């Protein structure tokens, strides 16, 4: 059932040492090739401010920078705009009864959002009705249609889902290049429309108001910094989606706290990791 869409099934953890005895941690879904790792060896961590080469190794560099000057990592990005950052949970599409069990489990852990990718093997209406029976008040579903929804019937589907109290937002309901379609859909949808796969690279589509919120998925740190400035200028909410464990959750939380309009819930899938590297986990409190 994990492969009804896909899921984070492995991680690479980077442990980076300096000649002064510091240790930095980073992680990514897959191992970087040797030629990328070699670029970091023998360098100063501060050479990698705004890293545009590797998210995992860039995370380790920021960990080292914060330790070197004894400041929280968010201060390396700028002013802190929020001390608490909204986070969502994630699961796979499966039969409605198991979806309801997952909602109940994540709600008990303190989450108020759950994202999943719609699957052609399951009926989303049946899933939603069952999940709603298990969801406490205020718990919401983040539907990811992954640009593969039912063609011309997307507006009708979103309208039907919007009638359920558990429905929260719709990610990528249309192909990324259909900007006019997104603008029209946003006018018609009662719930936020989230754009992840931007064919225009989050440029003109943002200025045109194609979505209510935007998602940067696995963006390099430098790219996230640049895009955060654009979203702030347009006063557009956005989120980061960087999958991993507690290391990734810590880094993403620091970044989200320092980006002005990053107040949409982020996704990292740390909640599905059974065995983690850090002893202490970052668990949500009321979302």
Helix-strand topology string: EEHHEHEHEHEHEHEHEHE
User: What is the global morphology?
Assistant: globular
Overall mean pLDDT: 93
Percent in strands = 15-25%
Distance from N terminus to C terminus (CA atoms, Å) equals 26 Å
**Lateral arrangement of strands in the main beta sheet:** 9-8-7-6-5-4-3-10
Structural class: alpha/beta
Largest sheet: 8 strands, parallel
Provide the gyration radius in Å: 19 Å
Number of helices: 9
Low-confidence parts lasting 5 or more residues at pLDDT below 50? Answer: none
Number of DSSP strand runs: 10
Helix content: 25-40%
Give the structure's gist in a few sentences.
The chain has nine helices and ten strands. The protein is of the alpha/beta class and about 290 residues long. Helix 4 links the parallel strand 4 and strand 5.
Describe the structure.
The chain is an alpha/beta fold. Helices cover 33% and strands 16% of the residues. Strand 4, helix 4 (124-134) and strand 5 (140-144) form a beta-alpha-beta unit. Helix 3 (96-108) packs parallel to helix 4 (124-134). The longest helix is centred in the first third of the chain and has 15 residues, at 55-69. It is globular and about 60 Å long.
SSE blueprint and pairings:
Elements: E1 12-17, E2 23-28, H1 34-40, H2 55-69, E3 87-91, H3 96-108, E4 113-117, H4 124-134, E5 140-144, H5 154-162, E6 167-171, H6 179-188, E7 193-195, H7 204-207, E8 213-217, H8 221-233, E9 238-241, H9 246-258, E10 266-267
Parallel strand pairs: 3-4, 3-10, 4-5, 5-6, 6-7, 7-8, 8-9
Antiparallel strand pairs: 1-2
Helix pairs in contact: 3-4
């Amino acid at each position: 059932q994990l492969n009804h869409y896909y899921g984070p099934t492995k991680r690479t953890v980077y442990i980076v040492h300096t000649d002064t005895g510091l240790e930095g941690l980073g992680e990514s879904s897959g191992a970087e090739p040797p030629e990328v790792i070699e670029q970091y060896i023998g360098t100063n961590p501060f050479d990698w401010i705004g890293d545009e080469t590797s998210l995992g190794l860039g995370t380790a560099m920021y960990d080292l920078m914060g330790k070197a000057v004894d400041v929280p990592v968010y201060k390396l990005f700028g002013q802190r705009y929020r001390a608490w950052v909204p986070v969502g949970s994630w699961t796979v599409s499966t039969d409605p009864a198991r979806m309801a069990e997952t909602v109940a489990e994540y709600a008990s852990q303190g989450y108020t959002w759950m994202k999943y990718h719609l699957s052609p093997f399951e009926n989303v209406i049946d899933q939603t009705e069952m999940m709603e029976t298990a969801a406490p008040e205020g718990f919401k579903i983040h539907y990811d249609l992954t640009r593969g929804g039912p063609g011309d019937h997307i507006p009708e589907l979103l309208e039907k889902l919007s009638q359920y109290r558990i429905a929260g937002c719709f990610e990528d309901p249309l192909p990324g290049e259909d900007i006019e379609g997104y603008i029209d859909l946003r006018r018609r949808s009662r719930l936020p429309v989230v754009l992840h796969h931007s064919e225009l690279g989050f440029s003109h589509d943002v200025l045109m108001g194609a979505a209510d919120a935007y998602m940067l998925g696995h963006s390099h740190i430098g790219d996230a910094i640049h895009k955060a400035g654009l979203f702030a200028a347009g006063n557009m909410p956005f989120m980061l989606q960087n999958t991993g464990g507690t290391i990734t959750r810590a880094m993403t939380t620091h970044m989200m706290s320092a980006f002005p309009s990053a107040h949409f819930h982020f996704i990292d899938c740390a909640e599905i990791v059974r065995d983690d590297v850090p002893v202490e986990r970052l668990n949500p409190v009321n979302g």
